Amino acid sequence: MLMLVVTIIVAALVSSFSGGLSDSAEPAPTTAFDISIRAGDEVGNGVKSNAPGPAPECVVLTMVSGDTLSSADLQIITTYTVPETYNGVPLKNAGKVIKHTLDGAIGQDDVWDENSNPFVPQVNGYCLLPDSAMNCLVPGNGMVGNPPCFGTCLFKAGEPYWFKDRNAFLGFDVTDRTAYGFQEGSVVHITIVHTPSGQTVYDQDVVATW
User: Fold this and answer.
1) What average pLDDT does range 150-172 have in this prediction?
2) What's this model's pTM, rounded to 2 decimal places?
3) How far apart are CA 177 and CA 43, in angstroms?
């Protein structure tokens, strides 16, 4: 009888504890994203600007629908596998995986370093230029001025956000074609995690266009 009483008490405590955890966890937001990646050359390389639209080298993230989200609550995780060849030439890094995370909680600090080893997974903040507020760009802000930044801006339904520095977004130099083979048709797997709830709100392969 004593053992039965102890068992019932322990079960009640476990139930109460787990119930408290579920009550305190933040629910996952209801949202839908669309992401596009451009593999084209940068403006100035014989390429003309698309202003006021996104530049040819932009990653464009659009919240199609859903709750407004703080970018500080998001992690954007990209995974890219170097192909076997580029334009028929074998690549020495073929088959290697580049995994990179942009963490909105880091803000504009600890940004991607071009001298870092891309095959070592990194977690960084995002800033287009050192000591610059230029970062995520929304319609109406153009390419200059003080647009919202990843880590401080809100993602709102129907608004596209431009990440102009693909290298900092993906964690490697996409223009070094012979090292990484990034081109039109390259596939990047992108996962977006809502950190307060721990839930994944986007998890898809994205095919780069020119």
Assistant:
1) 87
2) 0.80
3) 17
At residue 9, the pLDDT reads 45
Spatial separation of the C-alpha atoms in residues 179 and 173, rounded to whole Å: 9
Burial of 113 (0-12, 13-18, 19+ CB in 10 A): exposed
Q: Which residues are registered as beta bridge partners of 33?
A: 63
In the block, residue with structure tokens 């977006």: 192
Nearest alpha carbon to residue 29 among 61, 69, 64: 69
Q: Which are the contacts of 45, defined by CB distance < 8 A and separation ≥ 6?
A: none
What pLDDT, in 10s, does the model give residues 77-133? 999 999 999 999 999 999 999 999 999 999 777 889 999 999 999 999 987 654 454
| CB 162, CB 58: distance < 8 Å | yes
pLDDT in tens, 35-73: 999 888 765 555 555 554 566 678 989 999 998 999 999
Amino acid identity, position 127:
C
Q: Look at residue 133 in the predicted model and tell me its pLDDT.
A: 46
Question: Whose CA is closest to 146, among 158, 126, 128?
Answer: 128
The β-bridge partners of 188 are 80, 206
In the chain, the amino acid numbered 42 is E
Tell me if the bond preceding 52 is cis, omega within 30° of 0: yes
For 107-137, the three-class secondary structure string (H helix, E strand, C coil) is CCCCECCCCCCCCCCEEEECCCCCCCCCCEE
